[in-house]
From TrEMBL, chain B:
This is Phenylacetate-CoA oxygenase subunit PaaC. Its EC number is 1.14.13.149. Residues 1-22 are annotated as: Disordered. The keyword Oxidoreductase applies. NCBIfam families: PA_CoA_Oxy3. Keywords: Oxidoreductase. It is an enzyme of class 1 (oxidoreductase). It comes from Leucobacter rhizosphaerae.
Length: 168, 286
């Protein structure tokens, strides 16, 4: 989703600063990798960044807003406004390929198919690959895990438990 | 409107957290969180959003009771996750509902009395044992899945946006409770016997979800008719129950009037726990 980065150089600079903010719960990912960063603009009354929450109740969004604000203030922008938008609704389809790769390196299995596979009468079943040994002999232990966005899995090859970032 | 508040969009967030009825204003400018920010709900849309928001708030509060009491760690996490999703929906809906009367989401959650709540009776029903909670959740999620899918056709952009987000989450809730219905029904004689009773106990509160009234008639086109959601709900429920070889429960509908602010005897106890802290320590914030 790099297409969201503004073409205007001044706005792009704001984008690039905001894009460095990590997800407090999955610090290996930036808000850009996640698709949470939606837009950046520069106006006469300061700079404006728009984020979208991942899950409705996700507490990380407030932390992300504070982090974006302080990063931009550190960079010398005095008037910073961070807004949220709910529409279009966030989906894991927006996660960058680089982000998925970083997730796996970090030990979290990335979302492994498009969100459309979760709609309609026939739900797609895809193997989840163990981020450690890359075996596909894995099983879901708990659909709801340590955060809203993750499930808990177990690898039956290397016997290690791991988190899986749910398709959403 | 005893808690009128004027939110100054340019107020210094660290400045005067002035009380309004001794409630501090959340310094987060929630008005900006929603699409079409600055939009104000009409009184009718606000009343409708309050029904949905109160349903989500009360059920979230109920599920929160299970934290650290779940039958196993995974279920503890599942119910807290579902509670968190519902609280997120409640925040968005109540914030939006409050725009019509100048009240914040916290005003609506903590400073209304029982007769001002608009939630259905189903969400007031006791947590009971784990099967009771699952039976209640299954029926409610089946209803919400229909509701939020249809509400994405709303003429109101804020309701559309909230529904679009909520539907994805509710689909997980529905799947989770449906899986447990199947496990209980196909588990042991004891688990099967008990889930049948659990479903029968909450069944009287289903009809209330699908009643059209003056408000929903006035909002025709803007929001789905509750009665129009029944067929989809029945399909979901009968699919899962027939898979579990369970019969659709037979029970007289309860005289449930939650949408008019008349609640079951369980509601007062719920609110006492939900509201005591901000009422005991007005203006306190984390």
């Amino acid at each position: 989703m790099t297409t969201l980065r503004p073409a205007d150089p001044a706005a792009a600079r704001v984008w690039d600063i905001a894009a460095q903010v990590p997800d407090p719960e999955v610090p290996v990912l930036t808000i850009e990798d996640l698709g949470v960063l939606r837009s950046a603009s520069v106006g006469s009354d300061g700079v404006r960044v728009v984020l979208t929450p991942t899950y409705s109740g996700c507490p990380a969004i407030d932390q992300m807003r504070d982090d974006v604000t302080s990063k931009l203030r550190e960079a010398g922008y005095e008037r910073v406004e961070v807004d949220y938008t709910l529409s279009p609704a966030w989906t894991t389809d927006w996660m960058s390929e680089a982000g998925k790769h970083k997730l796996e390196e970090y030990g979290i299995a990335p979302p492994n198919f498009r969100a459309a596979g979760r709609q309609g009468p026939v739900l797609v079943q895809m193997a989840v690959k163990c981020p450690r040994c890359h075996s596909t002999s894995t099983r879901e232990i708990a659909r709801f895990g340590s955060t809203s966005c993750k499930s808990l899995y177990e690898c039956t090859a290397c016997l290690e438990p791991f988190d899986y970032f749910k398709v959403h | 409107m005893s808690h009128d508040v004027e939110l100054d969009p340019h107020a210094d967030p660290h400045g005067d957290l002035h009380g309004h009825g001794d409630v501090s204003v959340d310094e987060l400018r929630l008005a900006d969180e929603l699409p079409g920010s600055g939009t104000t709900a009409t009184p009718d849309i606000a009343e409708y959003a309050m029904r949905l928001g109160d349903d989500a708030l009360i059920l979230s509060q109920q599920l929160g009771w299970w934290v650290a009491k779940g039958p196993e760690l995974e279920e503890d996490l599942a119910l807290s996750n579902i509670a968190l999703d519902l609280l997120g929906h409640a925040r968005a809906l109540l914030h939006f509902a409050g725009t019509a009367s100048g009240r914040s989401e916290d005003d609506l959650a903590f400073w209304r009395d029982e007769h001002e709540f608009r939630n259905c009776w189903l969400v007031e029903q006791r947590n009971g044992h784990y099967g009771d909670t699952i039976a209640r959740q299954f029926l409610f999620s089946a209803y919400q899945a229909e509701l939020y899918r249809e509400l994405q056709q709303s003429t109101d952009p804020t309701l559309r946006a909230i529904a679009g987000k909520a539907e994805r989450e509710v689909r997980y809730h529905l799947d989770h409770s449906a899986q447990w219905i199947l496990r209980f029904a196909g588990g042991t004689d004891e688990s099967r016997r008990r889930i049948i009773i659990s479903l029968r106990d909450v069944w009287p509160y289903v009809d209330e979800l699908f009643v059209d009234d003056e408000l929903t008639e006035r909002l025709t086109g803007a929001v789905p008719r509750p009665s129009s959601l029944r067929a989809g709900f029945d399909r979901t429920v009968s699919t899962v129950l027939s898979e579990a070889a369970l019969e659709i429960p037979q029970a007289q509908p309860a005289w449930a009037q939650g949408r008019s602010g008349i609640h079951s005897t369980l509601m007062g106890h719920l609110l006492t726990e939900l509201q005591w802290l901000p009422r005991r320590h007005p203006g306190a914030s984390w």
